[in-house]
Protein 1
Amino acid sequence: MIKFIRYFIFFIPVLPGIFFFQACNEKNEKKNQIQQTDSTAEAQKLAMTPPMGWNSWNAFGKNVTEQVIRETADSFVSTGLKDAGFTYIVIDDIWQGGRDSTTGLLYPDAKRFPSGIKALADYVHSKGLKFGIYSDAGDKTCGGMPGSYGHEEKDAKLFAEWGVDFLKYDYCYCGDLGSTKSDYRDAMSRYKAMGDALKATGRPIVFSICEWGDRSPWIWGREVGGNMWRMGSDVYDIWDSPRSDQDPVGILGSIDGETNLRSFAGPGGWNDPDMLIIGLNNTGNIKGGGCNDIEYRTQMSMWCMMAAPLMMGCDIRHMNETTKTILLNKEVIAIDQDTLGKQGYRVMRKDGWEIWKKTLSGNRVAIAFLNRNSQSISATAPFKNIELDSTAKYNVYDVWKHAPASQANGTISATMQPHETQVFVLTLNK
Ligand code: GLA
């Protein structure tokens, strides 16, 4: 007992120190916990609105070079695209030179990317933009270059070291490709392998699933780490295709592919109807005959109504003035980027024209009239037919005319040219 008292007396002066040490430890632990929570939240903030940027495939295909990417980054800044919210510059397929047989590392084509990918990513970052790259869940990419199957961790690590912020991940040369059965489990495991590998790098990298919709990626996309998932075939530079079920699709076919899938889109994960063909004018890597500017405007309007990722595809170094006014319309972009992240939907269809509706933040709603017909048409819809309160009063704003639109109470009307889309933002007038 005396021994115990002696020890206790000996400890008295150091007790506050022990408590202090413990308190500090607890504080540090809490701080760590907070930091961990913060970094998780940070990761979740990825793609909280549909990603916006540019992808090399439509304009350049296998001829993409580092010079093109650098000049594209410069043009993002000089044309105002960056200020309008376009951020990601993505090199699509056929940037690769091969996979090193000793190290197992991918390397770029030395002729087209002599400075290497890291230097290119650094350049894009120096402009305040983000950098994206492409690979494939199979043995090879669609363009026949080495795929990432079985190399997921190594490739993800390399991409992170290079400073990649966005990965488009294709589905050529995968197990069931070309068979009549589409195995979604195989697709899930291939995409999850890369999704996990990207997460393990600790770098926030937008993961863009490009599986063309055959295995319903909208159902499992988020689960495997995806931030967007293609809904269908490649959109070619064409208004519509002869068949809705065959490659390539046009603007209309791609819109129709999104029908009824709105519940799967939202902050962090988006339905992707493919890239914008606006401004291609039948040039570049994908053709189809080209569209007119009214049709291109329809693509911009409808992609924004559908809360779609806005990945431009034309050579933005040489955009004409009309292309600029379409791609740089901040009022239509604001509909796409609305923080609620609600995908719009077709609320009415009649005689070849349709009305689409998208709920926006701040008691607002976007209404789009789409004319599928090859003739001009005047269309009117009473509010009750488009799920709006008949007695409500709205201030109506035309986002293409950049002006208020006068509309009769309880109805909304538009006169459209062939293939035109008109978009209005209605603000509840209390
Ligand atoms: C697939 C994709 C395209 C493009 C090419 C590249 O076809 O759907 O968007 O990435 O591969 O080879």
Protein 2
Amino acid sequence: MIKMMKIMMFGVRDDERAAAKEWAEKNNVEVTFSTDILTLDTVEQLKGYDGVTTQQSIKFDEGVYERLNELGIKQIAQRSAGFDMYNLEQARKSNIIISNVPSYSPNSIAEYAVTSALQLVRKTHLIDQKVKEQDFRWQKPIMSREVKSLEVAIIGTGRIGQITARIFKAFGCKVVGYDLYPNEQAKEYLEYKDSVEDAVKHADIVSIHMPATDDNYHLFNEDLFGAFKQDAVFVNTARGSIVDTKALLRALDSGKLFGAALDTYENESIYFPKDCRDKEITDPMMIELMERDDVILTPHIAFYTDIAVQNLVEGGLDAALSVIKTGTCETRVN
Ligand code: NAD
């Protein structure tokens, strides 16, 4: 009898189980769930397994790689695009292939970026408040701008940036963009500018879609916000570290920015995506972002749709199975 392959899914959330069960049936693989994260202690659960997928968000205990090797496991399949929590070199030395899921639903993030920009521009969050107060008057503070007449700047025109640009274009907006490496296809729906400053100068909405690198740490600082058009709306569904939050708050206080939608925040890892209902929030900047009417703060949730979760689960399990069967996988990063 042929032995059934066994893959352990670490850090599993309830919403991932259905997609994993379906995948297991389709691929004739036994998939076991563990809500634990993968550490030197929990790695022992993998005795007798062929592969592992996980969803690590904190730095990895480096002893895990060698222990996996000893247990005969050849890979770790991360169920996210980011893989900065792994020491790729250390993993390679222990013959462990690390893989990610590079693109699981760029539409989900793009749609969310547009949604939160529209909320701010059309002031739906303020209108909601008025309705709750039973104040149903049409009045200046809740009169909004027409989206079609606005200019939008997309900074970072890769997978997500391009979809965001296309959606805004469909509204009839003028769309400009900036990228270190302009994309030929993107020129169909946006006009490239030569610098970030040029791109933001006349934009009513600025939406950022680039990865966090050493070079763009706090790229959006006091000087750059100073170059924005008066009353612009700023949207960050990319990475918190790209934005100097103090400078952003000053730009909101001075009235330079009309509002900001932040799905990511530079010090988010203490809080996102955790249940903090019984916890005191001690970060004063985070408290301010949560309390302000001109900021929509959300817990790194732009990706979180049915399709994205399914693609992440399947992407992780596919990568694990591919390494088990062929010794490698298309999404390996080391
Ligand atoms: P991508 O690699 O397809 O595109 C990124 C683009 O940014 C590339 O074209 C690159 O040339 C450009 N770029 C890099 N550095 C730049 C800089 N300093 N200035 C201008 N352009 C620069 O990536 P993607 O799949 O479109 O993802 C974009 C970002 O979205 C990711 O890096 C990630 O940070 C973020 N993201 C967020 C969520 C969420 O839930 N909020 C989920 C997934 C991804």
